[in-house]
Amino acid sequence: MSIQSEKQKEKVESSSKQTSTPSGTSLSGTSLSGTPLSGSPSSEALGKKKDARAKRESPLRLVLVLTMVCAVAAAALAGVNELTKKPIERARYRFKLASVNKVLPECDNDPGKETVKITGPGGEKITVYRCLKGGEVVAVAYSVDTEKNKNPPYSGVIEVLVGVSQEGRIVTSPKDKVVGVSILNHSETPGLGAQITGDAFLRSFADQNFVGRNLSKGTQSCGHQGDCRKWAVRKDDPGGFVDVISGATISTRAVTEAVQRALAVFNSKKEEMFRDE
């Protein structure tokens, strides 16, 4: 064999030693028998790390998703509220004007365009709608609510509109058997407290001759012929003039007190209500 062949053989053997792995091992870091070598992570350990990472990330991902959903829902609700707010306000205003015309006598003017602003005894702002005949204010309409009642409603707040004549009596229409008291807003139970909106109950605020009651000395109401009764529900006081609604005593008391308070506002603010502008 030539010297050149021997040198080539030595180079091949040297290269083999450099690239070979320890006996019984593979390039993947495991022994030929499948046993992991020391210091090399197994596929099982890597899987456990991935599971642990996923468990940590899962609650955070859920929170982020829920936050995004809530933000989108809140934005949608805000948009819908903004779109419907003004139409609802206009509808309520139209309903109130219709109720104003109902609780007032026939007027020469449009009460909705003849208003004055006053401050009630408790500091509340009150819009007064004025009814004119022959250029003279003959009656006014305004609303009060039950927020300051000693006898609160069964649910929510009741807003009561009253029409009051220049003499301080609740406006009545014997021809139509309508009393100048109307319920603008309430949350009472349907079929029970909700009966406060019915004419049968509201007629309690007129005397036997169908003349609107007034408020005398804050505790009494005197009829057309001077017969005075206590401003109370008959169930609570036999001397009262308001008949209780069956199953809705709480609602009856609340409205009765609200109308009484409305007439108290009239007694203290009459000059401002009827003053010429």
Structural features, described:
With 277 residues, the chain is α+β, with helices and mostly antiparallel strands. It has a domain at 98-274. The chain is 39% helix and 19% strand. It is built from four helices and ten strands, in the order ααβββββββαβββα. The chain has helices at 3-19, 43-103, 199-202, 249-274, and strands at 115-119, 125-133, 136-145, 159-165, 172-173, 178-179, 181-185, 220-222, 228-233, 240-242. A five-stranded antiparallel sheet has the order 1-2-3-4-7, sandwiched between helices. The chain has a three-stranded mixed sheet with strand order 8-9-10. It has a two-stranded antiparallel sheet with strand order 5-6. A hairpin with a 5-residue loop joins strand 1 (115-119) and strand 2.
- Major β-sheet, in short? 5 strands, antiparallel
Count of distinct strands = 10
In the predicted model, the low-confidence regions spanning at least 5 consecutive residues are 17-29
Approximate helicity band: 25-40%
Sequence of secondary-structure elements: HHEEEEEEEHEEEH
Number of helices: 4
Q: Structural class of the secondary structure composition? A: alpha+beta
> Could you tell me the radius of gyration in angstroms?
43 Å
Strand order of the largest sheet: 1-2-3-4-7
Characterize this entry briefly:
The chain is an alpha+beta fold and 277 residues long. The protein has a domain at 98-274.
